[in-house]
Amino acid sequence: MKRRILSLLLAALMLLPALVSCSEKSADPQSNDPASGEPTASTPASSEDEIDESQLSPAELRQRIPDNLPANDFGGRDFTVCTEERKFYEIFSEELNGETTNDSVYDRNIRIEDRFNVKIGTLANSAPENQVNTSVTSGTHDFDIVGFVNYKTYTPVTAGVLYNWLDIPLVDLTQPWHNQLANGDATINGKLFAINSDLSISTLLYTYGMFFNYQIMEQYGYSSEDLYNLVFEGVWTVDKLKEISSGIWQDTNGNGKHDAEDIHGYAVTSAGVNTHDVWLAALDISPVLTVSGEDEFEVTFFNDATVSALELIASLYHESEGTFFDPSGDWRKIPAYFANGKVAMSQLYFGETTESLTVMEDTYGILPLPKFSETQDGYFTNCWDQFTVFAVPLTIPSDDIDFVGTIYEVLSAESYKTVFPAYYDVALKSRYSAEPATAQVVDLIMAGRKLDFTFQFGEKLTRLPYLFRDMVVANDTAVASKYKKIQKSLNKQIQSFLKIYFGE
């Protein structure tokens, strides 16, 4: 049977919580009927309930986490989110249509609207990071929060048009629906201007894993069990990836050259895109900048660890017999090659399961990005830097701050409690669940996501977080000379950036 259904259901599983440590606290999306005896999304179980939580499913446990929001009737007022046009699906659904993503968002909004007497809507915009600047500058209050892509955060932040989330009441950043991995490092001197939570479905869709083709791997003597055991034994490293993939090359057209017609053990694009950025996290050299004070910072990218990482990945890209370093510069070709059974392994973001991989005939599985070495403390990954972060425009009247905090918090909480579990419930009933090891690996991946805050300002920091991608594609490992060329301008830009957080 073709794996189209598997692809869609795997995408569903990707929509798990950002931290596995929180996954025990899950929710059943079907337990919203008060007559069922289970707690509803808006009414968590009381301490008097005589329920043995050890007997509850992860989904049911998640449902029982209270959002601690006070009861309030907002008189039917609108809560409007200005969002990027292609991220409309995170916020709003017009009606039920039987599709999991759509229906879970629709149900979430209805529950919130009934609970707080509000109406949730969106204002689509091609560049919301610019629109918030325009709105605040003109003094208009057209929307309550704004969502924009992470790497464009510098636009409204440098313009000084956003509230500090730490000043927004009723938003509890310790709750599991807030992404600690993103928000922690992005908080500098008690200021956090752009926030990430489970309202941002794109954060999960854009997470990277190492996908592998079952059939090709089995042909070369590696079963899925073999690969998963490497992960669980802590020995899944870049060297192991290179060892396995270097032995896989079928010159199918017989021209003696590596090209797109052949079957390769590993493939990567020559385009300078986010596919390469994942190694910063995977090899534990992220973050590339640490801040401890207004004039106290360290550019940690320029050190021996980075040199070693560059040499390791450059060898994988440019020297391994089994690697196809696609010269076309079209990054979309790599997932297409994988879907067409031409590649044994490649790093792809999870969203490809509902994009390129829907046409894939072969079975595929997923592994974490490999470690630098066996001694590395865990498996790490990151996300395509176009995931959504949210902010509050300064034009929100002070009397409305409680309203904004309440509805943003409950949107995030209900996404954690019911939207993501709805996807997960579908996946558990699928053929995918017959391979428990894959589900364990997905948990490992989600637990190890490191979201470097410097990507929010990368284009204003001499492309600091993008230097690894530029250098590894160019097969350039001369870190010291690179730093010498940009040191003066980079330090000046960092100091200017820090004034935003340490100024008056």
Oligomeric assembly: single chain
Which class of secondary structure composition applies to the elements? alpha/beta
Q: So, CATH architecture of the largest domain? A: 3-Layer(aba) Sandwich
Which sequence of SSEs, written as H and E, runs from N to C?
Answer: HHEHEHEHHHEHHHEEHEEHEHEEEHHHH
CATH fourth-tier homologous superfamily of the largest domain = Periplasmic binding protein-like II
Which runs of at least 5 residues are low in confidence (pLDDT < 50)? 1-48, 427-434
Q: Which whole number gives the mean pLDDT? A: 87
- β-strand percent reads 5-15%
CATH fold name of the largest domain: D-Maltodextrin-Binding Protein, domain 2
Number of domains: 2
How far the N terminus sits from the C terminus, by CA atoms, comes to 63 Å
Q: How many H/I helices?
A: 17
